[in-house]
Amino acid sequence: MIKAIVYTSKTGTTEWYAERIGTEKNLPVLTLKEAEKKLEKGSGIIYLGCIRADIISGLDKAKALFSPSVIVGVGMTKSGERTREVLKANNLDSSANLFTLQGGYVPSRLKGIEKLILSLVVKKEIKNLERKEKRTKEDEEMLSLLKNGGVIRDQEKLNEIMSALDEMEKRQ
Hints:
This protein is of the alpha/beta class. It contains seven helices and eight strands; from the N terminus they run E-H-E-H-E-E-H-E-H-E-E-H-H-E-H. The protein has helices spanning 13-25, 32-38, 59-65, 83-89, 112-131, 137-148, 155-171, and strands at residues 2-8, 29-31, 44-52, 55-56, 67-75, 98-102, 104-105, 150-151. The strands form two sheets. Strands 1, 2, 3, 4, 5 and 6 form a six-stranded mixed β-sheet that branches. It has a two-stranded antiparallel ribbon with strand order 7-8. Helix 5 packs antiparallel against helix 6. The N and C termini lie close together (9 Å). The model has no long low-confidence stretch (mean pLDDT 92).
């Protein structure tokens, strides 16, 4: 039984998704730090974390403390993309209930080494996209996001996740 929505967020986008799921499912929404103090070890949760280099931040700790039945990674790439890579990078079985959502890029909310590393990755990706002779609409959108920053909230994909959660509840 799911006791809470637990998340880790750097720029606020993951928090936004967590709040929406919590409201829809009438569940408390806690940061991973708060959950450590308030939830019993092994509690069922839905976990959301930002994706950096296919790794979902805080997931290892969340798995060690709780029992995530659904995992949502929030990153810069389009919702639903790179699922296989994220599964592999996080040592998750292919049967894991993993979803990915696009969250955007907000460099002003990042600090320290993380900001530096991400800025280097973004510069490289901008160069790669600018070199492409024929860019797709998605390429242009990504290029704009990387150059200008911005937040994306994929309500359509979030609705799909809500439907999947509804189906899971019916099976229990």
